[in-house]
Design a protein that fits this description.
This protein has eight helices and five strands, in the order E-H-E-H-H-H-E-H-H-E-H-E-H. The protein is an alpha/beta fold and 181 residues long. Helix 1 (16-25) packs across helix 8 (166-177) and helix 5 (88-97) crosses helix 7. It is globular. The two termini are 22 Å apart.
Amino acid sequence: MTPKRIVITGGPGSGKTTLIELLEAKGFPVIHEISRQVIQEAQAAGIDQLFLTDPLLFSQKLMDGRLKQFKQAKAHSEEHLFYDRGLPDVTSYMHYIGATYPANFDAPCFKNSYDHVFLLPPWKSIYTQDNERYESFEQAEIIHDHLLKGYEKYGYTVHLVPVGTPSDRIDHILNKLEISS
């Protein structure tokens, strides 16, 4: 039995990583975000911001990695599997920067469906920038809008997660999924 695939997504500084780590600490299986790994590998090769330097290559690496992650669900026996971002994040970010991408980017997003999508809004009081998060808070708000439209484009009903303590946000998600914490 393949577990239900649940995406936790949001723009930079929305608290995604904190929620994913909390879900994992509660014993839920999670698939971690790969974009920081791709960014760090590019930086090690001397490319400061691969997404800005070659957005298509960066996005292809993410699409390939996330497709591989999507398929990892078959190796899990748990009822639910949480993903830190999903396939539609790739095309949403491409729309955000106004870049075109090959038509083959849409196919995996339509073909490989998640069961639930939870979108976290940007949260100014927790927002920080670092070497991998270069966007301003205002840009994070725009990215949020692109993520919402992006997931809706592929037919998802997106559940918006209200700002609050990590525990309250986890409770909100688990209640929507009808999972006891």
